[in-house]
Design goal:
The protein starts with 13 loop residues before the first strand and ends with a strand. By secondary structure, the protein is an all-beta fold. The mean pLDDT is 80. The protein is built from one helix and 19 strands. The chain is 3% helix and 55% strand.
Length: 192
């Protein structure tokens, strides 16, 4: 067990790992740790950091206003040739060489691939995404979808129960899809 003290007060933290490197972001700071030792800390002067994802390409930084990529010491706002970009980021997930993005405030789902941004048409708000090989499992508040686009519902009581506040998290493990809601954990076979 190893404890790293974060001296930035009570705030929302987001983390990402890559190899032995740990990244920690807040509304005002970005820090890089290696084996529990802080190597570098930056004062973050842009919008608050809401999501981090470390990949071979660098550190993807989602904020309440945009998406950035940090390569070594170069920070670039991510835009495509049409000047399309997310208006903020709540969630970043890798999907092969692609980056899955859930947009801040709107809950829209998009993919960054080959220097281009594409929205996927699902009913927002998207609350979680779980990529597995050639399929993405997408959870909106009360429905489960897969991409390529199909709607998949196996237990309508999950989606229409008035005591249920909706899907919180999705995990695909072997041949099961595991859904977490505020009140229950659901397990389903992966659709064929």
């Amino acid at each position: 067990w190893h404890r790293i003290r974060l001296p930035w007060g009570f705030t929302r933290y987001v983390i990402a790992t890559y190899g032995d490197t740990l990244w920690v972001g807040t509304s005002t700071r970005l820090a890089r740790f290696h084996d529990g030792i802080k190597l570098k800390e930056w004062r973050w002067q842009l919008q608050p950091i809401t999501a981090l994802l470390a990949t071979d390409d660098g550190l993807w930084i989602g904020t309440t206003g945009s998406l950035y990529l940090l390569r070594d010491t170069l920070l670039v706002e991510v835009r495509d040739t049409q000047e399309n970009f997310p208006t903020g980021v709540d969630l970043l997930k890798p999907w092969g060489k692609r980056i899955i993005v859930v947009e801040h405030n709107t809950g829209k789902l998009g993919i960054w691939e080959h220097n281009s941004w594409q929205y996927l048409h699902f009913t927002p708000p998207i609350v979680d995404v779980e990529p597995k090989s050639d399929t993405i499992f997408v959870g909106s508040r009360y429905q489960i979808f897969t991409h390529p686009h199909t709607m998949w519902e196996t237990d309508f009581s999950l989606f229409f129960n008035p005591n249920n506040t909706g899907i919180r998290d999705i995990i695909v493990h072997h041949d099961r899809v595991i859904l977490l809601t505020q009140h229950a954990l659901y397990m389903y076979p992966v659709p064929k």
